[in-house]
Design brief:
Length: 106
C-alpha cells in the first residue's frame, strides 16, 4: 500500500454495479457487526475487520473468487484488501465506503 493509494478515490456505486455483473463474486462489508445491522448493501456478507484474519479463510476458501470489499469510508476496506492480496487472493477490489452509496440499503 503506497502513499498514493491513500488518496485514491473509490466509487462504491460503480463497484456495486461491477459486483452485480461479476459471476460468483462476493460483496464483503468489513464494518463491525452493529454497523452492518444498522444498514448494509443487499447480499453483502459481514466479516468485521476486527476478526477478519480469523474468519476470511473459513468464509472464502477459493482464493480466485472475485471479492468486492467495502466499509464506511474506505479505510478499513483498504486494509482488508491489502491483507487479502498479501495472503494470495487474486481478485480483490476495494470499492470504498457505504457513506457514498446511493442504492438500496437494508
Amino acid at each position: 500500500m503506497g502513499l498514493f493509494s491513500l488518496f485514491k478515490r473509490y466509487d462504491i456505486n460503480q463497484g456495486v454495479e461491477e459486483y452485480q455483473h461479476t459471476q460468483d463474486a462476493l460483496l464483503i462489508d468489513v464494518r463491525e457487526k452493529d454497523e452492518h445491522q444498522e444498514g448494509h448493501i443487499p447480499d453483502s456478507i459481514n466479516i468485521p475487520l476486527s476478526v477478519f484474519n480469523q474468519m476470511i479463510f473459513k468464509e472464502v476458501k477459493d482464493k480466485d473468487k472475485p471479492l468486492y470489499i467495502y466499509c464506511l469510508g474506505g479505510g478499513r476496506s483498504q486494509r482488508a484488501c491489502f491483507y487479502l492480496k498479501k495472503n494470495g487472493y487474486s481478485h480483490v477490489k476495494n470499492i470504498g465506503g457505504i457513506s457514498k452509496y446511493k442504492g438500496k440499503i437494508i
